[in-house]
Amino acid sequence: KTFKINPLLLPYLTYYLTGNLKPESIAKALIYPRVLSTSITTTFGTGLQKFITDTLVEICGGSGIQGIDIEFIDQTDGKKRYCQVKLGPNTINKDDVKTIKDHFQSAKNISRTNNIGIIHENLVVGIIYGEENEKNANLKKVEQEYEVYIGQDFWYRLTGDPKFYKKMILTISEASKNINMKRTVEKTIKSLALEIDEKKLFAV
C-alpha cells in the first residue's frame, strides 16, 4: 500500500527481471530493489563503522584530540599512530578529503600548542575493510599527504595478528547467518502478488 508505482517503468523492470508480467513477478520487481537497496547497505555500513570504532576506542583508548578516533601503537614498528577510522575504500567522498585533512591539521596545531609531539608521519587513516587496488580517487588524494592503512594491513598494524582481518570477516559472516529474511521476503511477495492480482494491475 505504500509503494509508489511508476506505470511506465514497472512493466519493463518486471520483464527484465522475470521475463513475464505475472502478479508475483510484478511483486518481485517491487520488493527486490527495497530488500537490496543502498539505504540498507548504508545503514548497515554506518552501524558497522560505529560499532567497530566504539570497540576500538574501548580497546585502544579513545583520543582526547578532536577529529582523531583512536590512538594505538603500530605493531609493525612500535610507533604511536593517531588515526581517523573510515569504513571502506569507496566510502570517502570529496567533502571527506577536506574534513580528514582539516582534522589532521588541527591535531598538529594542538600538538604544537600543548607540546604533545605529534609528527606528520604518525597521522594515519585506517580503513576497516578493502584492498589496496580498491581505493577511490578521493582516498588517493588523502594518501598524497597521509598514510592510509587499509583492510588487512590496518588490522595487522593494530593487533599484530596477520590473520585478524580474515578472522573478523568469518565472524561477521557466521553472525549474518542468523539474519535470514528469506521467509519474510517470500511472504511479502506472495501477499503483494495477491493484491496486484485483485487490482488487475497491467491486466490486458
From TrEMBL:
MF-aspect GO terms: endonuclease activity
Residue stretches making up the Type II restriction endonuclease EcoO109IR domain: 21-179
This protein's UniProt keywords: Endonuclease, Hydrolase, Nuclease
Protein's name in the database: Restriction endonuclease
Organism per entry: Candidatus Shapirobacteria bacterium CG_4_9_14_3_um_filter_36_12
